[in-house]
Amino acid sequence: MNNKRLVAVLETKIHIFDLETLNILHTLRTPSNPRGVIALSSNVNNGFMALPGHDSKGEILIYDVINCQVRSSNNACNNPIQNLSMNAEGTMLAAASTQGTVIRVFSVPDGALVHSFRRGSYPVTIHSIAFSGNNSHIAVSSTSNTIHIFELKSQDKPNPKTKPSASITSYLPNLLCNMIKPERHFAFVNQKDSSHRTVVAFNEGYLLVLSEQGYFCRYIVPEKGGECKLGMEFPLVEKPDEEMGVKIHGQGAAQTLFDVQHDAAATGDKKRIQTRLSKEHFETVFHPPPKTDKILRNGSTRLGQSSDSKKRVHPKSTLTKKG
Fold this sequence. Notes:
Layout: E1 5-9, E2 13-18, E3 24-29, E4 39-40, E5 48-52, E6 58-64, E7 69-77, E8 81-86, E9 92-97, E10 102-107, E11 113-118, E12 126-131, E13 137-142, E14 146-151, H1 174-180, E15 187-190, E16 198-203, E17 206-211, E18 215-220, E19 226-227, E20 229-235, H2 242-249, E21 260-263, E22 270-273, H3 279-286, E23 293-295, E24 301-303
Parallel strand pairs: 15-19
Antiparallel strand pairs: 1-2, 2-3, 4-5, 5-6, 6-7, 8-9, 9-10, 10-11, 12-13, 13-14, 14-15, 16-17, 17-18, 18-20, 21-22, 23-24
């Protein structure tokens, strides 16, 4: 959905609504798409939608939802399309096939190949693909133990003054070289458990990861690349499972469940405070042990006091003499 159009995706058709009147403007007949794989631009000036054009091939259609017309069609992959993601401006599209080994980035709306990245060698299920705010990086999460971050470098024009090397790729255009030898990741996040679905996003130099297990994590992306550092981990469920923190981030101890980062109010400088909370702490916070009544020596009960904390008092000691 954007400010002008609402798109409803069914298995074999797509309804395009006018957001002001909620009238159906057009209905697209599509190949079988049980997972509802599409990508819609949030920019109404580039109101484009990308969708699979075939259920057994890697064809991608670029459709203009404002004017209700097809803008381009291209064979992006050899296998059926598994995941699509478009940047906020509606100018670039990232696509992954059912193999999930290569991530390709295309320009919109012409569908020309701009980048090609090697995610891995083994087939995986791609969970999510996200562009950074300045379109300098994309992040990819999958059933692999690694979340990959790729750098979207500008395509350099060949310099005629440079001497050609012996490699065959030196005689080919840059885009064709990317197809033969895709680039590797720029940065990465290691996960100990990838059996659950994760969604990734960027926010001001941070990588945000939302896990199906109920954890929200923020990673610091290094400027020069490499492994991202965990900056904050926050449980979204009332009582996090002890095994979650160990499996996801490999802290090595069950008492380390999340790190909290906040500012020091006194100096105004950022101070990192790591709070280690154990499972027993969560037990006492969310399920405090019931207070038991203690039996006193005289047979009476007093809440929360031991039997020795109250001395026996003779009944006559409370009487006073009159006169």
